């Protein structure tokens, strides 16, 4: 395990390299630098980024924005390549992180399955981007009767994304794309039993909390919010969301993978009107246990799982 000082020093060095690049579009140099950064940050680390010196905090904020921009450019690049094929979804393996999305989709489906008794009919994915792999993986492999409403503020991203599924008879009917700022969507949010919030929506904590507050105000009581966070050194790559940031939601579990799946998964529910039925809370057709159920380890078996008791 790299010591904290060396880790921070190495991350700062990579940040300097990225800051001096003319472009963050995929290239041999860009890919190599980001590969080095990911390899540095993925191993389990006890580092707490919020306790680092102020100048390191500022570097981290800038680095997260750079990572977000580079990820968006990479997704656009590969979405355009995939869209050039007659059946784009048959060639998803060309995207370098495709297997990560398959694993993350399986993980999120397993966690989600602990908290409903029937598959949700309508799911919203906020910040779906030009390559909406989470929606595609969940819709293809796990939730085959669910309609996915993909929200993105960028019209060009949605154009690329819809091109990917247009040739698929099934997914083209179950994947809907909305070009809009989620902060302007109000009553529409009440339609969804599950809302996913992408890691790249709100690239700083303040922006992300504003989105969470908006969702808290307009989601249906008892609906599930799933979002992605980061843990340990992975927090140099993505913003961290704590239970305390989820005002208006009850956090049911936080899951920190320790394999190549980078994002932690946080599942919570919009604070509902609770009706007690024996040892479960029931909201509509969704049973919500008083304590979240055990979720099996994922990856190499050494993952951490934090269970947070839901107060009666």
From TrEMBL:
InterPro entries: Nicotian_synth, SAM-dependent_MTases_sf. The keyword Cell division does not apply. Keywords: S-adenosyl-L-methionine, Transferase. It comes from the Eukaryota. One of its GO terms (biological process) is nicotianamine biosynthetic process. PROSITE patterns: NAS. Signal peptide: none annotated. It catalyses: 3 S-adenosyl-L-methionine = nicotianamine + 3 S-methyl-5'-thioadenosine + 3 H(+). It is an enzyme of class 2 (transferase). SUPFAM superfamilies: S-adenosyl-L-methionine-dependent methyltransferases. Its EC number is 2.5.1.43. One of its GO terms (molecular function) is nicotianamine synthase activity. The keyword S-adenosyl-L-methionine applies. Belongs to the nicotianamine synthase (NAS)-like family. Synthesizes nicotianamine, a polyamine which serves as a sensor for the physiological iron status within the plant, and/or might be involved in the transport of iron. This is Nicotianamine synthase. It comes from Sedum alfredii. The gene is NAS2.
């Amino acid at each position: 395990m790299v010591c904290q000082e060396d880790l921070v020093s190495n991350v700062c060095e990579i940040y300097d390299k990225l800051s001096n690049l003319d472009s963050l579009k995929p290239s041999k140099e860009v890919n190599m630098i980001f590969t080095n950064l990911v390899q540095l940050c993925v191993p389990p680390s006890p580092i707490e980024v919020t306790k680092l010196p102020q100048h390191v905090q500022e570097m981290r904020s800038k680095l997260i924005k750079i990572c977000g921009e580079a990820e968006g450019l990479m997704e656009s690049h590969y979405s355009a390549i995939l869209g050039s094929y007659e059946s784009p979804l048959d060639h998803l393996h060309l995207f370098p992180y495709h297997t990560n999305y398959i694993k993350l989709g399986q993980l999120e489906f397993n966690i989600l399955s602990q908290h409903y008794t029937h598959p949700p009919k309508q799911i919203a994915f906020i910040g779906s981007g030009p390559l909406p792999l989470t929606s595609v993986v969940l819709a293809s492999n796990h939730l085959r009767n669910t309609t996915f409403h993909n929200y993105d503020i960028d019209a060009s991203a949605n154009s690329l994304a819809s091109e990917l599924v247009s040739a698929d008879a099934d997914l083209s009917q179950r994947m809907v794309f909305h070009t809009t700022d989620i902060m302007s969507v109000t009553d529409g949010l009440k339609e969804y039993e599950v809302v996913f919030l992408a890691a790249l929506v709100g690239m700083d904590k303040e922006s992300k909390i504003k989105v969470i507050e908006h969702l808290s105000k307009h989601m249906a009581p008892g609906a599930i919010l799933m979002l992605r966070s980061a843990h340990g050194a992975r927090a140099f790559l993505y913003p961290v969301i704590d239970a305390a940031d989820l005002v208006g939601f009850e956090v049911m579990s936080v899951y920190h993978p320790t394999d190549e799946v980078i994002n932690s998964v946080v599942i919570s529910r919009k604070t509902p009107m609770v009706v007690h039925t024996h040892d479960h809370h029931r909201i509509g057709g969704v049973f919500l246990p008083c304590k979240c159920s055990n979720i099996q380890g994922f990856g190499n078996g050494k993952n951490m799982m934090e269970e947070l008791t839901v107060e009666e």
